[in-house]
Fold TIGR02450 family Trp-rich protein.
Amino acid sequence: MPIKSTRQLNPQKLLQSKWTAVNPQNKEKHFIVIKLLEPELPNMPLELIELEAVHSHRSFILPWRELKKSEQWLQGWK
């Protein structure tokens, strides 16, 4: 069953935004969007971002729409 999300996000305004993982792993709870990954074709919409964990500085690439899933991510640091 798909999860309905009402969170509105503008992908172009995600850079440097702060996020909290609902289910932290390896003490990684707080994250910052450090990069917006430009699509290969110039006219294509933004799909991917790079998140960095504040605690470990580990980073990973994620489709930005994943941040809309409130069961996984909270906006801001909680």
In short: The chain has one domain: 11-75.
